[in-house]
Amino acid sequence: MKALRLVESGRLVVEQVPEPTAPGVGEALVRIECATLNHLDLYGYRGMAFANRTLPITVGVEAAGVVEAVGAGVDGFGVGSRVAIFPIEPCGLCPACRLGRDTLCERQNPIMGFHADGMATERVRVKARQLVPVPDTVSIENAACVPVTLSTVQRMLFENARLGPGETVLVHAAGSGIGSVAIRMAKAAGATVITTVGSDWKIERALALGADHVINYKTQSFPGVVRRLTGKRGVDVVFEHTGAATWEGSLLSLAKGGRLVTCGSTSGAAASLDLLQLVNRQINIFASFGGSRRDMLMSLQKMESGSVLPVIDSVITLEAMADGLSRMARREVFGKLLLRGFASNGSVEPS
Ligand SMILES: [Zn+2]
User: Fold this and answer.
1) Cα 95 to Cα 193: distance, rounded to the nearest angstrom
2) What is the pLDDT of residues 6-30, one digit of tens each?
3) Which of 287, 254, 267, 240 lies closest to 329 in space, CA to CA?
4) Which of 48, 88, 181, 288 lies deepest, with the highest CB count within 10 Å?
5) How remote is the CA of residue 37 from the centroid of ligand 1, in Å?
């Protein structure tokens, strides 16, 4: 079968690999229908793995598909079940796992597509407890954006920052996969959304997503605009994932007692922190990494009700993944890039 393999940092190759063996106890075989590109792919492609890995690996950290076979002891899924795949196998036994805090599992679990073989291929064999059912009314393309993208936003805004109706949130990078979803999730929750973009062509598109105010942070000082828009008060929550380029301004944009939640640092990881400012202004900082299977379920419920759908930039083939990662790095996307066309005779057209 076909798989997109990272053979060395910076080199992706579509190769033929052996089919997975039949699913064992508690396992399922899933035919991948759609995968998506994430900044995690970009880090992996550039060789910025957080832990040891042995190349080559099949890439793809986020995907959805259809169950083709199940092993013994699998309840709740059968042949034909549409599923989104959690890219980590939590141990299910440690205190964190028992509380449903999958990403804090005490066992060092590899992330599929990042440390270990991932989902940019025709079929994967996974533990059934990594699967989350996709409701009939949710398309497989939208479901493919749940395991990393939507679940990350769900966790950041609601589990960590506890964003509530009537509050104001500053969402960075409206055109990014998670930024675009964060705007929609925050609006659906009844918040006022201020967002930043780095290019004027993204302003109209951010407004179309429901953002109340859009700031081009390259031509305007965003903390100053935020102060003006909030009557000098600042925002209740900042949704951070850009890091170095925005960190200082993000802290300055917060109201007293405000919450900053971050899941990444796409513009650089080094940032400074003024502890006096932190204490005087009683700012809370939350670090968030991915989401849990519960966050996936919550995200799918929101999709099912139609209140929050991902923003799709375009659909590309496996062969175009390196180009897609370059577009993401240059911030020339608005929303998600999807990967389709896994089967040898597969079509790249979205269904
Ligand atoms: Zn665990």
Assistant:
1) 36
2) 999 999 999 999 999 999 999 999 9
3) 267
4) 181
5) 26
Rounded to whole angstroms, the Cα distance separating 155 from 162 reads 9
Structure tokens at 44: 């992996």
Contact 334, 176 (CB under 8 A): no
Q: How far is the CA of 105 from the centre of ligand 1 (A)?
A: 4
For 16, the enclosing helix (H) or strand (E) is strand 11-16
Range list of H helices, the chain: 39-45, 95-98, 140-143, 151-154, 177-188, 201-208, 222-229, 247-253, 275-280, 293-304, 321-329
CA of 4 to the centre of ligand 1 (A): 29
Q: What residues form DSSP beta bridges with 170? A: 194, 238
Give the distance (Å) from ligand 1 centre to CA of residue 64. Answer: 23
Cut 0.85: pTM above it: yes
Name the residue type at position 68.
E
Mean pLDDT of 173-200: 97
Task: Choose among 138, 160, 169: nearest CA to 254.
Answer: 169
Task: Take residue 294 and report the two structure tokens written for it.
Answer: 């519960």
CB 88 within 8 A of CB 151: no
CA 195–ligand 1 middle distance (angstroms)? 36
- Ligand 1 centroid to Cα of residue 110, in Å, is 12
Over residues 92-143, the pLDDT tens digits come to 899 999 998 888 899 878 999 999 999 999 999 999 999 999 999 999 999 9
